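Data availability (excerpt). The following record was deposited with the supplementary files.
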Amino acid sequence: MTRYRWIICSMLFFATTVNYLDRQVLSLLQPILEEEFHWTDNDYGTITAIFSLVYAIAMLFAGRFVDKVGTKKGYAWSIAVWSLGAGIHALCGIVTEQMTGLPDAAALRMAQGADIVGQIAMISVTAFIICRCVLAVGEAGNFPAAIKATAEYFPKKDRAFATGIFNSGANVGAIVAPLTVPVMAELWGWETAFIIVGLIGFVWLGFWVFVYKKPDENPKMNAAELAYIEQDAATEQTGVQEDEPDRKMSFWQCLKYRQTWAFAFGKFMTDGVWWFFLFWTPAYLKAQYDMVGTSIALPIAILYTITVIGSVFGGKFPTYFINRGMNPYAGRMRAMLIIAFFPLAVLAAQPLGGISYWVPILLIAVGASAHQAWSANIFSTIGDMFPKRAIATITGIGGMAGGIGSFFIQKGAGMLFTYSDETALHFMGFEGKPAGYAIAFIFCAVAYLIAWMVMKSLVPKYKPITDL
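Predicted structure:
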């Protein structure tokens, strides 16, 4: 049997790596940009929140787009748009200088007076929001296309593992970013970091065009591998009519199923937690430990190195239960319940943070690792329940829900941290921004258990969709 499906999985892995590399550049540069453009936490929260909202809306249409044009074309358009969006961030400083009449970055940084400082902040925030919107529209296609490709190239029993592998690209991107972005910013300016990561996406695009073909059209696969991929059709009679790929399917049809709402709620509650860790951990290290620039590279890299474990082994975890007789959905839900307890470690991040900054970094790593394990499995529940032609659409609906949840968390976090700093908020023995972070960490810790309970109540047993 050939193993071309793993080449496809590696392509999905690298695309997800680039996706998160592009996404994390802003958070790593936030301490620098905050000083240059006079941002408050609320300003930064607005930028990340708008990104999340646009991403959420775009996810709804990205899934439909991928289902309509196919995996190959859908993914190609997606990465082209998000790579362009990443690169144009480099223009935000120039736009701010031109519109304020200031000559360079040093003049922006040294500006004083409420009027000019307010103008710099407003213009720069607007410019970054526009660029983040382009990035969000492109990045919205990543997971619908990747999940659809996984469903096309892997049988159900292997999908969570394959999803875990390509989803670990998010961790690798988050590892590579802190090791490279601050260095590039220090040597050549922050603009260079955005340009380089944008170019990397176009390099991947060149490979994708030649590598991806549908399994039944792929000359580099033999009959044995194709039979392995299509084994579910031979062993399961679910009543799903996969031989009607062109049958029209509306959003309203998808929304009438409890399975759709279970997936969407799980994403709504938990996606924002991951994005909170991704977008706010560098700002947390600055607020709590006065760490900026290259000093945050090692702890952030270690944090996301640990999360690779959750992504890969979390995706493999359900097979332990499936191999003992559980159906895929039951095994996945059992695994997700166990996984949901691990983020509770984040509750100790602030209380034990006085020992060393490594303590919250390691505890956040546990929570982030659990998220990646959770994510690999929640994505795979779609393939358990829905026909292949609906997978990207359902993924898009869930992604929209996750983006909306993230919007509330990112904007709420920015408002909370600005408020806690200005009012010297007291909570659990902490004062100011540390008190705000203590509140945020509580939500991050319990979100997964809440999500699992609601998902289980909506879909208590395995029930595949047979009439879509």
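Summary of structural features: The chain is about 80% helix and 0% strand.
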